[in-house]
Design a protein that fits this description.
globular; 14 strands; 432 residues; two-stranded antiparallel ribbon; TIM Barrel; binds manganese (II) ion; binds phosphoenolpyruvate; 14% strand; binds erythose-4-phosphate; alpha/beta
Length: 432
């Protein structure tokens, strides 16, 4: 990874990000409204939170027009097959393992990096599969995870204020006015590097005759819409097999839910500690009106302190609605804090605690803990604390390379997988 990613420090307060109400982001400075491609007479575009403000609209139109003519990155039949695999997860017959960088970077696409994440997910999957005695569906946060929602629209360093980094699809990480100005040509580069990554992933998966799927947050709607195609089987976003909507953009009347309601890919939505059962039920009605197992995944990211209190009501009421969604635990985003050194970090003990809480909730309700969603890398970075080869607070500067959130390194990822294997083996619904 490029040295410019080292020592990334954040002036924004990371500790409370899980507690920030979703609506607070809606009117944030620097947020533009991106409407649907075509609107009927008298209709208005739903507001889109967390969009970059593109200064060059003509360049944006040119790039999105070009992307709209290019082949999709994935095939419709692949998306359909992933829906079938996720239906098995929803029925309790498989486990979902979703992971990868918080933010992929264009410069970070190397064979070593892609192999590292792929191999880590593969090893984790083998461990979890053995513990659960179930097949594991491997889904990378890869080949398109290039857009980031932010707590603050700006970053302040040494008295200078610039737009926050919103992912390589929007602007650059370097703290200069040129780099931080959103550039629509990045959308084309994002398509190209996603294709490069996918090419390698397909080769790695084929070598083992394994299935591997791709996913990213469908945040930057100009990009997602440009890669959406109307096919004989319906409308699909062919930028990835699965796309998800994040905690900051799941407003019921917002453009992001509106977008995924219109596509047939399997989709996921993050639910933070402020989410109510009514919020979840409204999302079910909107995205999964036919109650199709595999269509909708909820990614719970409550935080270790909240998961045991907040999750039961959501799971039981969604279950009572007749929906058979996949429940996945993201134990990363509710457990973020800033270390005294200024590094945004997470402690593996807290991550494990949230995972255990997630399993306890499902054990009490008799439902299936569908899987895990983690930010991780195969490299030996020092971004999260703890583990059997422990990273201590003083180690954080050694290899802190993430462009956004702290990732588990390979060793910490395997620690997590061993814990999951154990939890599945002991879970009441386990086949053992
Ligand atoms: O993954 C994403 C981060 O949690 C999100 O971008 C917010 O991070 P921030 O609080 O550093 O802006
Ligand atoms: C921004 C992210 O998560 P959340 O929407 O849960 O905050 C993420 O997955 O990187
Ligand atoms: Mn993240």
């Amino acid at each position: 990874m490029n040295s410019r990613h080292r020592h990334a420090q954040f002036s924004v307060t990371g500790a409370g990000s899980a507690r920030r109400p979703v609506v607070a982001e809606r009117q944030a400075h620097g947020t533009s409204t991106a409407g649907p491609a075509a609107l009927g007479p008298g209709t208005t575009a739903p507001p889109a939170a967390q969009q970059p403000v593109w200064p060059d609209q003509a360049a944006l139109r040119a790039v999105t027009g070009e992307l709209a003519t290019l082949p999709g990155l994935v095939l419709v039949e692949e998306c359909v097959r992933l829906s079938e695999r996720l239906a098995a997860v929803a029925r309790g017959e498989a486990v979902l393992l979703q992971g990868g960088d918080c933010a992929e970077t264009f410069d970070g696409v190397s064979e070593e990096h892609v192999r590292g994440t792929f191999g880590t997910l593969d090893e984790m999957g083998a461990l979890i599969s053995a513990g659960a005695a179930l097949p594991v569906v491997r889904l990378g946060r890869m080949a398109g995870q290039y857009a980031k929602p932010r707590s603050s629209p700006v970053e302040v360093r040494g008295g200078e204020t610039l737009p926050a980094y919103r992912g390589d699809l929007a602007n650059g990480l370097a703290f200069t006015p040129e780099s931080r100005t959103p550039d629509p040509r990045r959308l084309r580069r994002g398509y190209q590097v996603s294709a490069t990554t996918l090419n390698l992933l397909r080769a790695l998966a084929a070598r083992r005759g394994a299935e591997f799927w791709t996913s990213h947050e469908a945040l930057l709607l100009d990009y997602e819409r440009a890669l959406t195609r109307t096919t004989a089987s319906g409308v699909y976003d062919l930028s990835a097999h699965l796309v998800w909507i994040g905690e900051r953009t799941r407003q019921p009347d917002g453009a992001h839910l509106d977008f995924v309601a219109g596509i047939r890919n399997p989709v996921a939505v993050k639910l933070g500690p402020g989410a109510t059962a009514d919020d979840a039920l409204a999302i079910v009605d909107r995205l999964d009106p036919d109650r199709t197992p595999g269509r909708l995944t909820f990614i719970s990211r409550m935080g270790a302190d909240a998961v045991r209190d907040t999750l039961p009501d959501l799971v039981s009421k969604v279950q009572a609605s007749g929906a058979r969604v996949v429940w996945v635990c993201d134990p990363m985003h509710g457990n973020t804090f800033v270390a005294p050194s200024g590094h945004k970090t997470r402690d593996l003990d807290r991550i494990m605690d949230e995972v255990r809480g997630f399993f306890e909730v499902h054990a009490a309700l008799g439902t299936h803990p569908g899987g895990i969603h983690a930010e991780l890398t195969g490299e030996h970075v020092t971004e999260c604390l703890g583990g059997t080869r422990p990273v201590a607070p003083e180690d954080l500067p050694t290899r802190y390379e993430t462009a956004c959130d702290p990732r588990l390194n390979r060793c910490q990822s395997l620690d997590l997988a061993r814990e999951l294997a154990d939890l599945y083996a002991r879970h009441p619904s386990s086949r053992r």
